[in-house]
Amino acid sequence: MIDIGLSKMALIGAVALIVIGPEKLPRVARTVGTLLGKAQRYVAEVKAEVNRSMELEELMKLKTQVETAAHSVEQSIHGTVRSLEQDFAALQGDAGTGAASAATPPSYRHPRKNWRLKRAAIPQWYKARNGVRTRALSGAARVARYRPKKFH
């Protein structure tokens, strides 16, 4: 790095005063200052870009490590599931009453529930006795029902 002390700065200032002149020196000093500021900002931007690229590379490495770990966990889980399915099939084959039950796995049976019909835990007679609403009211019906009565 350039080693500039106070004595060297004074020598540069004296030479600049003689060469440039006292009337142009402030304008030149301002121009040099702005150029140095621009150079410093440019260097700072380059440093920030290099740091961002290094962090991005580190994140990419971390991403690949996490992906490989997740893949290995997934493979181990799939292997465990396969072994459990084989054990279950073997147990089902041993406990089954023939080859037909082992060959056809049990299929899903719908519970024959009518999904349109609501089944409540509270009986209807209890709801009717205690005034529990069993039907939804529209907005207009609700206003008509709960509107205060007018006195004539």
UniProtKB/TrEMBL annotation:
<keyword id="KW-0653">Protein transport</keyword>
<dbReference type="GO" id="GO:0043953">
    <property type="term" value="P:protein transport by the Tat complex"/>
</dbReference>
<keyword id="KW-0812">Transmembrane</keyword>
<dbReference type="InterPro" id="IPR003369">
    <property type="entry name" value="TatA/B/E"/>
</dbReference>
<keyword id="KW-0811">Translocation</keyword>
<protein>
    <recommendedName>
        <fullName>Sec-independent protein translocase protein TatB</fullName>
    </recommendedName>
</protein>
<keyword id="KW-1133">Transmembrane helix</keyword>
<comment type="subunit">
    <text>The Tat system comprises two distinct complexes: a TatABC complex, containing multiple copies of TatA, TatB and TatC subunits, and a separate TatA complex, containing only TatA subunits. Substrates initially bind to the TatABC complex, which probably triggers association of the separate TatA complex to form the active translocon.</text>
</comment>
<dbReference type="Pfam" id="PF02416">
    <property type="entry name" value="TatA_B_E"/>
</dbReference>
<comment type="function">
    <text>Part of the twin-arginine translocation (Tat) system that transports large folded proteins containing a characteristic twin-arginine motif in their signal peptide across membranes. Together with TatC, TatB is part of a receptor directly interacting with Tat signal peptides. TatB may form an oligomeric binding site that transiently accommodates folded Tat precursor proteins before their translocation.</text>
</comment>
<keyword id="KW-0472">Membrane</keyword>
<dbReference type="GO" id="GO:0008320">
    <property type="term" value="F:protein transmembrane transporter activity"/>
</dbReference>
<comment type="similarity">
    <text>Belongs to the TatB family.</text>
</comment>
<dbReference type="InterPro" id="IPR018448">
    <property type="entry name" value="TatB"/>
</dbReference>
<dbReference type="GO" id="GO:0033281">
    <property type="term" value="C:TAT protein transport complex"/>
</dbReference>
<keyword id="KW-1003">Cell membrane</keyword>
<keyword id="KW-0997">Cell inner membrane</keyword>
<keyword id="KW-0813">Transport</keyword>
